[in-house]
Amino acid sequence: MTTALYEYDYSMIFGKFDVLVIDPPWQVADCPYNTQSLSQISKLQMPAAEKAHVFIWTTQKYLPDAIRMLSEVWELDYRCTFVWHKPSGRQPSFLPQYNCEFCLYATKGKPRFVDTTAFQTCFSAPVMEHSGKPEEFYDTLRRVTAGRRIDMFNRREIEGFEGWGLEEGFHPTKSTKEVDGVIYNERAKYGIIKQKQLARKGGK
Fold first, then answer.
1. Given CA atoms 86, 42, 148, 159 in this order, what sign does their dihedral have?
2. What is the model's pTM?
3. Predicted pLDDT at 174
4. Domain presence at residue 200
5. Which of 18, 69, 98, 150 has CB atoms 3.0–4.6 Å from 89's, for a disulfide?
6. Is residue 16 very low, low, confident or very high in pLDDT (cuts 50, 70, 90)?
């Protein structure tokens, strides 16, 4: 299956985030959604606060590229790699079975975790639908981090995270909030959409 390369609209993200989970649309075989080239992914605009935790998912093939981009492109400090052990996975011809996935952890500034009890770099969880990430991962992040969180290129609604992506059936958190003097409505399918300025809040 061939998928189209897609340019994402980063202008639909408002404000900065303390925790970012990013699942770039790497070009992989038989991918059911729009993907991006390495050049496109390198242009990712990261809405990170001055002190931010950044988690970037990658695959076996793109692990070297993801590590390189962390420091050379996004100017983040690499800290460690989380490994999701899966009960199954595809096995290329004449190679081992790929039954794990990697999530690089990097920081901007010097953020702190609020809890590091039973916080390990390896975890086991069931395989999700194509490219979906396990709830166990998000359970951990909700426990060990604080502040405003975003899940970029997400496949589904995640409790405790604002969503941004381009996916059928995508439904971000249904709420309206004020951020930096602007009211935002997060019910739009394709991201966090600006609804109205405070200067117009008395209007329709």
1. negative
2. 0.78
3. 35
4. no
5. 98
6. very high
93: in domain: yes
Domain with 94 in it: 10-166
- Count up the domains in the chain and report the number: 1
Is residue 192 a contact partner of residue 183, using CB atoms and an 8 Å limit?
no
Between these two residues, 8 and 142, which has the higher pLDDT value? Answer: 142
Contacts of 141 (CB under 8 A, 6+ apart): 19, 21, 55, 149, 160
What's the pLDDT band for 156 if we cut at 50, 70, 90? confident
In degrees, rounded to 5, the angle at the alpha carbon of residue 164 between the alpha carbons of residues 176 and 138 is 95
Q: Is the pLDDT of residue 109 over 90?
A: yes
Residue 204 located in a structural domain: no
